[in-house]
Structure formats: structure tokens, C-alpha cells
Write a structure and sequence with these properties.
By secondary structure, this protein is mostly helical. The chain has one domain (3-120). The chain is built from six helices and no strands. The longest helix has 22 residues, at 74-95. The radius of gyration is 14 Å and the shape is globular.
């Protein structure tokens, strides 16, 4: 992995952790689109890699299936996992300081933006 790839992976992990800690969503809502659109992974490789980043809490069974089919980038998953921890800590701190009605609205907008991007991409 070159330096730019590592920086992008760190960025993805921190953003996924921040959003997860902020609005309580799984990191996949951030990780999958960013791995597809920023890092150029296929949809399946992005999904497999995203699940691999969450193995400790939830993903072991699903990751095994993706692994057997060759759809996990372990290097990407490791960097994102480590930085996800940092981002989620700070995201939770920010969330506790924001009015819940604004968090709800922000989460809704984020979901719409990501959905439109996913639908409009090739």
C-alpha cells in the first residue's frame, strides 16, 4: 500500500467511526460507498472489506462467506478498523453535545445523499 492509500483508509475509518458514534449507524453506510467511489473497489469487495472491519463486534460469520469468495481486502480492513475506533470515540462525544432533533435531521440528509449517489452511479 502506498502512502496515499493509507491516508485515504485512515480518513475512511475516522469518518465511519465519527458517523457511527454520532448517529448510531453501522460503519458500512460510510465505508462501502467510500471504498467504491474513492478507493475504486468493486461493490462486493467493498462490502466484504467493510464487514471484515467489523469482525470483532458483528461480522465474523458474514466475513467468512466473503473471504471464501475472495472479496476481502485485509490490508484495507485492518487500517479502517483501527481508525474506526478513534473516530467512533470522538463521534460519540460530539453526538452527546448536539440536540437530538438536529442529529435526526442530519442523519436523514446523509442517508438521502448516499442513496442518490449509489443509485446514480454506474
Amino acid at each position: 500500500m502506498d502512502f496515499n492509500v493509507i491516508i485515504w483508509l485512515i480518513f475512511i475509518g475516522i469518518i465511519a467511526g465519527l458517523v457511527s458514534g454520532l448517529v448510531g449507524v453501522g460503519g458500512g453506510i460510510i465505508i462501502v460507498p467510500m471504498l467504491v467511489f474513492v478507493m475504486g473497489l468493486s461493490q462486493l469487495e467493498a462490502q466484504g472489506t467493510s464487514i471484515a472491519t467489523m469482525i470483532p463486534p458483528i461480522g465474523l460469520a458474514a466475513a467468512i462467506g466473503y473471504y471464501h469468495e475472495g472479496y476481502i481486502n485485509w490490508k484495507y480492513a485492518a487500517v479502517i478498523s483501527l481508525t474506526f475506533l478513534i473516530g467512533s470515540y470522538f463521534g460519540s462525544k460530539v453526538a452527546l453535545s448536539i440536540d437530538p432533533k438536529y442529529l435526526k435531521k442530519g442523519f436523514g440528509v446523509l442517508m438521502i445523499v448516499i442513496a442518490i449517489k449509489m443509485i446514480m452511479s454506474k
